[in-house]
Amino acid sequence: MSYYLYWGKAKPRDGDDSCHLLPFHSLDVAAVGWLLFKPGRPLAQRLSTYLDLSPDALRRLLVFLLGLHDLGKFARAFQGVARPEDIPLVPPIERLAYTERHDRLGALLWQARWIEWLRDGTLQWPGDMPPRRERLQLSETLRALLAPMFGHHGQPVEPGRLELTEFFGDDDIASDSEAARRFVADWADLIELDWPVDKLVSKEWREAFLTVSWTVAGWAILSDWLGSNRDRFAYCQAAMPLAEYWPKALRYAERALEEAGFAQPPEPVPYAGLADWFGDQSVTPTPLQKEAESLSIGEGPQLFILEDVTGAGKTEAACILAQRLLAAGHGEGLYFALPTMATSNAMYERLGHLHRRFYTEASRPSCVLAHGARELNDTYMQAVAAEQPEDRDYAADDMTATTRCNRWLADSRKKSLLADVGVGTVDQALMGLLPFRHQSLRLYGLARKVLVVDEVHAYDHYMQTLLNQLLAHHARQGGSAILLTATMPRAMRESLAAAWREGLGQAPAALQEEDFPLLTQVGHDLKREVPLASRPEVSREIGIDWLATEEQAVDTVMAAIEAGECVAWVRNTVDDAIRAYEQVCRRHPDPERCLLFHSRFAMVDRQRIESDVIERLGKTSTPDQRRGQVLISTQVFQESLDCDVDHMVSDLAPIDLLIQRAGRLQRHVRSPRRAPVLSVLAPEWSDEPDAQWLKRTLPGTQAVYRDTSLLWLTQRVLRELGAIRMPDQARTLIESVYGGVVDLVPDGLQEARIEQHGMNRVAGAMANFNALTLEQGYLRHPEADQWQEELEIGTRLVDEPTLNVVLLERTAEGELTLWAEGERHAAMLSQVKLRQGQAEKLAGLPGGYQAQWEALQERHKALRFTQPWLVEADTTCGYDSHWGLVFSASPATTTT
């Protein structure tokens, strides 16, 4: 019956003990949790206040329960998985098969024995057994409290209809449940557990705990992962009292946290001005930045919405607010969420070392980039942690915590939400809402942070619905958030503010202010809307010139070239961009000055083109470099590159996108220049267009923007105003397209508008259906179980799935090789992302090459779950470093 007869870890290194005893592993994990939950940490204080328990009492309760996370390993069925040598342990019982994971078996043992342990004093319960009604409340509360602990493998578990005798043994040598009982009793005595009886029998307190149970689950997972690192927690198979081992576990845990970067949260410093950041006393804050410097930081969770034009310093204003929030104890770190990988890269580079100014010099805060192509960013690669040796993977789909931890430490997309400062796509944060394994780790990371969401207007209805839910949860957890936008409709601002207030348990409050720029602040019984001025240098007026045909657009491009200007033509589809590039190249006197940039380039060429664009059209480009340059691009140009052109042509698009594209028109001060003009390719104006109004001129555009009423309203307001005037007419421009304008939409476009609104409702319903009901807490609900391993749920709603296609070629010897062979990260650089329907048009890998392809996959992990494409063997589709991927024969023979 001794709990020293059970192993917890069983794959030693040379020279180690042959196993690590289960009680010691349990204390290792508890020691990590103990240190992560230091009472002085903001998160511990926040949970303590929310749950109305002293930090010390809450810490002892949660850490005691965390120490029970592996109770299921007392099952003889689990003990039979490994049989360490040279140590007497409980013998296997052959009839007991390990067919259920140990986390679920722990929940089973607790369900079967907790009342008995309460009665006999094992659980150190003070006083008599509670009466029946209170015992029912206690049962539900303990289920909620232990769910994060037993669910430490990333999903909540329930014992269901399992029988204890199917997995736990009782023979002449040992009774598994009795060994577990003795461990629980000794552990409760060691931790000096003091049950908060009045809380545990309160329904209201249980509901409060359910609200924060996702954060507690993330804490439990992180504790288990770090506490399972055999490099930091030496195996021990020699029995010793728990009180003797506990100090060792704490020392090991201190070292593990230190090396993983969690030993001590960075110490924030008060904001001291822009001059302190940049070392330049001449730096003058913008009006938005001045307001961020001086506004009152209230108590409790805060939401800030910053609306201002491009170039007004929104990022710096957000950083000012973030530093002030950190210094006021509203978080331990930051997460910057952006719409795309490209914008994430740009923000990561832009922050540089600025984030270090938020903390003391000794803190050395970590800053991690998070997205699918992060390895291609050299700045980021310097921050990646080395992998660790792997531990044993158990049966019954039971990946060990060490293996999880190894992969996690090598996967910055997960680590980004735990780093002191994370920069990545908004998807990484939204995944915390969806039933992905370990999603609670993301919520735990976010609960400790100020969440900054840039370009908040850029998300579709599906993502907006998820974002609203994330904001509501972040407010419930006590976090703060800052949202940035240049083109937000009023209805979206009201929706975001209402979501925040919902998280605070408050009714929506109407927002009245129509001015732009604007700072909105929302908190407990707090609502401020502050109209702001703009710097004169960011006030702009961009004329509008209308083009009715592609031929006119090409003529406009050539006229700009003849005038010695540089020009960009932003198209709405890749195929349209390729066709325009072909036409311009034929007429350009120097085709080498033409660039094509779209999403169907392999990453190796996309990086090269980005560098070319920046060199030719970037902030430091010279007049000679710029003269006669033409960029034909899709929206990838407007998303992230800090470039500008003298003249721009754009296909008609919704007003917010045209404003964004116009932001790349004469963005930097140069002279001499004519007044900026945006030439818009659009159908001939009609007061009463029919359903084919857009398709006749721009069929590809209609396929992208199905609600043609948005484009007609955009054309209408631009024709009325004659120009884009920012910030003076920003609100008018946006509300004239996205506001209450349904009565203005012609009958011929109503069907498309109604269809799109219906799709938006479906998208919102899909988001609500896919998202976890966070208010119900970290529990498994068999009647509505979303935790299915085979579910493929995304943070973005797309018409069809996307695939990563790997471009391959043959060597002179006929061997299969990567398109970017010889480059660093060649496997990733050889890939292009396509819609599934597009990928199906590519020729399959010819026979005889399968073995070589499998060998390539073995050598390059990045090739997993990708589709191979041997370019030269495809007689229908082709690829060229200048054109990208085309779904027909090469579009032109022009040398570029």
TrEMBL record:
GO biological process: defense response to virus
GO molecular function, one term: ATP binding
UniProt keyword list: Antiviral defense, ATP-binding, Helicase, Hydrolase, Metal-binding, Nuclease, Nucleotide-binding
SMART domains: DEXDc (SM00487), HELICc (SM00490)
InterPro entries associated with the record: Cas3-like_dom (IPR054712), CRISPR-assoc_Cas3_HD (IPR006483), CRISPR-assoc_Cas3_HD_sf (IPR038257), DEAD/DEAH_box_helicase_dom (IPR011545), DEAD_box_RNA_helicases (IPR050547), Helicase_ATP-bd (IPR014001), Helicase_C-like (IPR001650), Helicase_Cas3_CRISPR-ass_core (IPR006474)
Residue ranges constituting the HD Cas3-type domain according to the UniProt record: 15-226
PANTHER family: CRISPR-ASSOCIATED ENDONUCLEASE_HELICASE CAS3, DEAD-BOX ATP-DEPENDENT RNA HELICASE 47, MITOCHONDRIAL
Similarity remark: In the central section; belongs to the CRISPR-associated helicase Cas3 family. In the N-terminal section; belongs to the CRISPR-associated nuclease Cas3-HD family.
Record's protein name: CRISPR-associated helicase Cas3
Organism: Halomonas beimenensis
Taxonomic placement: Bacteria, Pseudomonadati, Pseudomonadota, Gammaproteobacteria, Oceanospirillales
